[in-house]
């Protein structure tokens, strides 16, 4: 079946309106859920049902904080922008409904750079670091990473977001990963990963249902420890899983 996001043989362009195509599903999976579930289904299940078992090493937390600061600075890389981030009052949980509504309003209002631009299709949610308007209804997607290079998992990350936007009917002209270039004045270096994002769409199609079922499972997923505990990211549940396996 032809992919509507990137028609075969042509320049990748979404061929439908970005507006009013979003649907809410009963199950919900975020970009982080998808990426972590692809690394290990048990990791996704623990995130959803036993997050208190997670142990984030201090160095990792510092790296995550630095990454957030880099991402915040990158929001201005194309000039003025509007950020869609919103939280459920009294919590640190994102208010996805509000973020999706704000994104639709920003699109209608002609905003050129929408940061944390939020979309959902049948329970699959993502917040795009920077959605950059090229023409009226044509966009570029930018995923920002505080890393000195573009790693394969970053491309998969951007690919998931491109998949969600495609399902929402976006017209997307390119997908980019922005990495941390060694230049203090202008450290934001975009790399075009559109073709790789195209290739990743089928991986999302093939796995999204399985990962939704994992997240919704009432019983704990059983997965033996292995290479996935360190790759591509060190897992924060290793202590718990070692206890289960009697190590
Ligand atoms: S420690 Fe390994 S098996 Fe356990 S949740 Fe993490 S990746 Fe999965």
Could you characterize what this model shows?
- The chain is of the alpha/beta class.
- The protein has one domain: Alpha-Beta Complex (Lambda Exonuclease, Chain A).
- Helix content is 38%, strand content 18%.
- The chain has seven helices and six strands.
- The protein has helices at 31-39, 41-49, 58-74, 96-108, 152-167, 194-216, 238-244, and strands spanning 82-83, 113-121, 124-135, 138-144, 172-180, 188-192.
- The chain has a six-stranded mixed beta sheet, with helices on both faces.
- The relative contact order is 0.19.
- Residues 40, 42-43, 46, 223, 225, 228-229, 235, 237-238, 241 line the site of iron/sulfur cluster.
- The site of iron/sulfur cluster has 12 residues, from helix 2 and helix 7.
H and E string: HHHEHEEEHEEHH
Averaged pLDDT = 89
> Radius of gyration, rounded?
18 Å
Strand content: 15-25%
Q: Mind telling me which CATH architecture this is?
A: Alpha-Beta Complex
What is the topology, as strand order, of the major beta sheet?
1-2-3-4-5-6
Provide the domain count. Answer: 1
List the ions, cofactors and other small molecules found in this model: iron/sulfur cluster
Helix content: 25-40%
Count of DSSP helices?
A: 7
Structural class: alpha/beta
* CATH hierarchy, class: Alpha Beta
């Amino acid at each position: 079946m032809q992919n509507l996001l990137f028609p075969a043989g042509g320049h990748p362009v979404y061929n439908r309106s970005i507006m009013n195509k979003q649907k809410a599903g009963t199950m919900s999976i975020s970009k982080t859920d998808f990426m972590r579930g692809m690394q290990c289904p048990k990791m996704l299940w623990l995130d959803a049902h036993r997050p208190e078992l997670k142990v984030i090493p201090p160095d990792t937390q510092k790296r995550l904080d630095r990454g957030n600061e880099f991402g915040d600075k990158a929001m201005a890389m194309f000039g003025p922008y509007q950020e869609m981030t919103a939280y459920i009052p009294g919590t640190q949980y994102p208010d996805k409904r509000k973020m999706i509504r704000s994104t639709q309003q920003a699109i209608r209002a002609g905003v050129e750079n929408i940061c944390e631009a939020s979309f959902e299709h049948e329970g699959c949610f993502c917040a795009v670091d920077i959605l950059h308007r090229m023409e009226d209804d044509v966009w570029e997607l930018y995923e920002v990473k505080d890393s000195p290079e573009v790693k394969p998992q970053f491309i998969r990350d951007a690919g998931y977001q491109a998949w969600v936007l495609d399902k929402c009917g976006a017209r997307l002209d390119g997908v980019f990963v922005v990495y941390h270039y060694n230049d203090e004045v202008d450290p934001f270096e975009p790399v075009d990963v559109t073709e790789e994002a195209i290739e990743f769409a089928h991986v999302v199609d093939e796995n999204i249902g399985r990962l939704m079922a994992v997240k919704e499972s009432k019983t704990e997923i059983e997965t033996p420890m292995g290479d996935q505990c360190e790759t591509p990211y060190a897992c924060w549940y290793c202590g718990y899983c070692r206890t289960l396996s009697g190590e």
